[in-house]
Amino acid sequence: MSEAGPSRRPPGPPPGPPPRPQFAHEKKKLEVYPEPKLSAKDKYARNQTREVDRILNVAFRMNPYDVLDLTQNADEKAIQKAYRKKSLLIHPDKMKDDQERAEEAFDLLKKSMDALLDEGRRKFVDETVDSARLLALRELGLPITMTAEEIELEQVPGGRLDQLLPSWEDRIKINVKHIILDEELKKRKAVQMKQEAEIDAAKRREAAEMERKRRADMDNAWEASREERTGWRSFQKGTKRKKKAPNVLG
């Protein structure tokens, strides 16, 4: 008697719930909006446009780290490498159809690199980012003593910084923008006050100079009329009648 071999599953669909039927409007949508196939040239142009859009975004352009897409611990080589890569991608000569925006983004890249390679300016940027981080922690009611590692752990699923709207990174960018704008307004106000003080001082100097000239003109006019005044006095003395001596009867 031969042993029975292993049972084989009859041909058919795999076990499990049947697939959901596709509705007519879904089929039509797939037919109307097929995934476009781009050439290498078109993909490069798309990447150029996306990078220009990213750099010119208001939330990014205020922070040199965001413009260059770098973290705070980036060293000089990383900064220069990021600048070269992005500047080659969006160079205005390569974006004739969007040259004006490309020039603006290219200029922001250069300014951001210069800021991060300058020790004093980078210190200001780092202090601004740190202040933005502390401000975000206060806004969320979290301890301001949290370290970068603790903040990163809180961003995992289920953490206190998970699924924030706006996200933790966006909050930092928004706060950096506000802090830099406030500093810029303070600088402009200080410059305006200085200019107004200089204008007032210039007006006072001008008024003093005009008064000095007026007095000098009066003195010159007085000196110029000296001869005329002297001649008139001499004339008056010459025409003045002498008193007759009284006749004394002897």
TrEMBL record:
InterPro entries according to UniProt: DnaJ_domain, J_dom_sf
Biased composition (Pro residues): 8-21
Coiled coil start-end: none
Start-end of Basic and acidic residues biased regions: 23-43, 195-231
Biased composition regions of type Basic residues, renumbered to the chain: 238-250
Pfam family for this entry, one: DnaJ
Protein name: Similar to S.cerevisiae protein SEC63 (Essential subunit of Sec63 complex)
Organism: Malassezia sympodialis (strain ATCC 42132) (Atopic eczema-associated yeast)
